[in-house]
């Protein structure tokens, strides 16, 4: 009886072996030499064909599931099945005030598409406003206040509806369109200029056959398609209607950071203007990535167009603000001071600094459509807590040709990589043992390392005013007993500043007495002289410093540069540091120290360990 063909193998060699086994058991081929005849070539062809078909079937199966799909078209299609539309490219936006100096009349209108120019990195960019704005003069001054402008070109594309063309599609023909700037209008016909504005549908529960809404979906080549209702869910377009698409095509993130703008052209015929910038350009970014779609689509589906849980808010914020690199959300009951009825949101942007007030207000307004009526969303800025490290490593000089300087540079690079890859987001916890392991793995010659940790944060004082400042690290401080290290300044240190309490105008610094009190002192021949022994308080358990009435008159340079902030160092109780709420951790490699030393035992130069030295495991 002939052997059955084994069809479970997909690998080329295994397929070929199975084919040979099958054919060799057939009486017709009992005398064939499958390795030395033309049959071997035919078997190669059959095996390759089977292998290709198996590979293609496997790839096809992968593209059927959101988790395993690789092609953007597949991911977008699967996301559409759960009602998720990927975000488009986003135009960089700025907020400006425009005063028209030579205007006259009872009112003045800035038409949509008024152009402003700017330069970023020696490259010119155009910004436009996205809506007509009319104002009346106040005391004879014509001011367009808090005007949002967007980088890019305002374009218009029109389609004439032909219901006999079953393949007609209303495609936006640019792949860098910012769909948040899209305006869709439908004109009755070429002979009837009556126009209706359609809005983007955000759900179907309230739609009927008269609802003037449009739907949006991503299609091939990162383009977007507009489509309309079917006469049941949304008003259908009719034969001869003219679909008018107005939108801004952008250069994505290229203009982020633009801070000065000039009018190109005129406003209502007037060109003498004064422009001030309220918020630099930010928020420009590319289309949503494949990994982001995979992450957001199922969470958006589970949120069901509402924001109740923390994950709901995270997903919704990332949908509303494409420039969000990371989002943290917590309820008012978990705030540093409990505030019930609020949900706090912190957003780390992909590019640019903290979000502008206008951007925050826009996100909050959009969120209120999804939030429970009794809950108020509040956006607060991220706060960075910096870590400085002192790392001393031992290495075996007999198994490496690298000198100590090269090894030190490589270790510092390892630390920098750890900071970039593992920290710098809201969930990036500093795990001391993981970093120590990475340092040891930097080079085979490195045998061990002792790495200690300090934290610091900045506070920005208002000069010449006695004010209260709270500096929260959200991690316990090292304080093994009362009066710990009192004579040497406890576990707190700072950069310099001057205070009004000292007539000699000495440069002052902060320390603590080991028992919960912050002190201000200056140095006389290296000896601490305390101007104020009760300058504030320190809570070693909660990791909080309060300067009760700090009256600073000037601030010393930091790292050789003029500064408007004071840097305050502390020694943590644990080498593992946790980011809490809106806190982000980052290692300051510029102020970290890496020192390498030959291990005298491993290199054979130490006699019975008598000359071997070790590094302290405690910060100083």
Report on the structure:
This protein has 620 residues and is an alpha+beta fold. Among the domains are: 12-62, no CATH class; 93-152 and 253-282, no CATH class; 154-249; 305-381, GMP Synthetase, Chain A, domain 3; 461-564, no CATH class. It contains 8 helices and 30 strands. It has helices at 12-24, 38-62, 72-81, 290-303, 310-320, 357-367, 404-422, 432-440; strands at 93-100, 108-110, 115-120, 123-128, 133-135, 142-151, 153-160, 170-172, 177-187, 195-200, 213-218, 224-228, 242-249, 262-264, 273-282, 324-331, 342-349, 376-380, 383-395, 446-459, 466-472, 492-494, 497-499, 509-512, 517-524, 527-539, 544-555, 566-570, 583-587, 593-598. A 7-stranded mixed sheet has the order 7-13-9-10-11-12-8, with no helix packed on it. Strands 14-3-4-6-1-15 form a 6-stranded antiparallel sheet, with no helix packed on it. Strands 19, 20, 22, 28, 29 and 30 form a 6-stranded mixed sheet that branches. α3 runs parallel beside α4. The model has no long low-confidence stretch (mean pLDDT 90).
């Amino acid at each position: 009886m002939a052997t059955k063909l084994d069809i479970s193998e997909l690998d080329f060699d295994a397929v070929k072996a199975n084919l040979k086994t099958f054919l060799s058991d057939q009486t017709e081929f009992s005398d064939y030499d499958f390795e030395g005849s033309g049959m071997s070539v035919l078997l190669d062809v059959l095996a390759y064909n089977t292998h290709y078909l198996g590979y293609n079937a496997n790839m096809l199966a992968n593209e059927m599931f959101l988790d395993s799909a690789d092609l953007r078209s597949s991911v977008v299609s699967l996301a559409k099945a759960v009602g998720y539309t990927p975000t488009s490219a986003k135009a960089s936006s700025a907020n400006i005030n425009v005063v028209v100096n030579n205007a006259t009349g009872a009112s003045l209108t800035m038409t949509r598409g008024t152009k402003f120019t700017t330069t970023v990195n020696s490259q010119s960019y155009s910004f436009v406003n996205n809506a007509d704005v009319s104002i009346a003069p106040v005391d004879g001054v014509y001011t367009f206040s808090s005007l949002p402008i967007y980088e890019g070109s305002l374009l218009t594309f029109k389609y004439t509806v032909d219901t006999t063309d079953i393949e007609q599609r209303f495609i936006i023909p640019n792949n860098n369109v910012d769909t948040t700037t899209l305006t869709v209008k439908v004109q009755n016909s070429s002979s009837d200029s009556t126009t209706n504005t359609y809005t983007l549908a955000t759900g179907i529960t309230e739609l009927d056959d008269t609802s003037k809404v449009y739907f949006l979906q991503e299609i091939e080549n990162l383009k977007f398609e507009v489509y309309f209702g079917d006469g049941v869910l949304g008003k259908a377009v009719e034969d001869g209607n003219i679909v008018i698409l107005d939108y801004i095509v952008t250069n994505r993130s290229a203009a982020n950071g633009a801070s000065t703008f000039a009018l190109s052209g005129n406003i209502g015929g007037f060109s003498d203007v004064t422009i001030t910038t309220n918020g630099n350009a930010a928020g420009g970014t590319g289309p949503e990535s494949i990994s982001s779609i995979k992450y957001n689509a199922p969470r958006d589906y589970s949120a069901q167009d509402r924001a109740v849980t923390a994950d709901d808010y995270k997903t919704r914020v990332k949908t509303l603000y494409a420039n969000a690199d990371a989002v943290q959300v917590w309820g008012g009951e978990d705030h540093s001071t409990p505030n019930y009825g609020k949900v706090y949101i912190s957003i780390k942007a992909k590019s640019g600094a903290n979000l502008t007030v206008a951007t925050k207000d826009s996100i909050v307004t959009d969120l209120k459509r999804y939030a429970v009526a009794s809950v108020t969303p509040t956006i607060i800025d991220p706060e960075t807590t910096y870590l400085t490290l002192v790392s001393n490593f031992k290495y075996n000089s007999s198994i490496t040709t690298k000198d100590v300087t090269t090894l030190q540079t490589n270790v510092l690079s390892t630390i920098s990589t750890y900071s970039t890859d593992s920290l710098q987001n809201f969930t990036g916890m500093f795990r001391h043992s993981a970093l120590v392991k990475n340092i040891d793995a930097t080079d085979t010659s490195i045998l061990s390392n002792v790495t200690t940790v300090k934290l610091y944060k900045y506070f920005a004082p208002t000069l010449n005013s006695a004010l209260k400042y709270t500096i929260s690290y959200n991690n316990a401080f090292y304080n093994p007993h009362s009066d710990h290290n009192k004579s040497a300044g406890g576990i707190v240190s700072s950069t310099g500043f001057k205070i009004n309490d000292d007539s000699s105008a000495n440069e002052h610094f902060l320390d603590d007495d080991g028992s919960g009190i912050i002190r201000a002192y200056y140095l006389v021949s290296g000896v601490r002289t305390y101007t104020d022994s009760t300058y504030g308080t320190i809570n070693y358990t909660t990791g909080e410093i309060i300067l009760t009435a700090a009256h600073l008159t000037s601030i010393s340079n930091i790292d050789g540069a003029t500064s408007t902030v004071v840097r305050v160092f502390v020694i943590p109780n644990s080498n593992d540091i946790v980011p809490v709420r809106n806190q982000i951790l980052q290692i300051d490699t510029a102020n970290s120290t890496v020192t390498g030393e030959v291990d005298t035992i491993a290199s054979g130069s130490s006699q019975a360990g008598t000359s071997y030295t070790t590094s302290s495991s405690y910060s100083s």
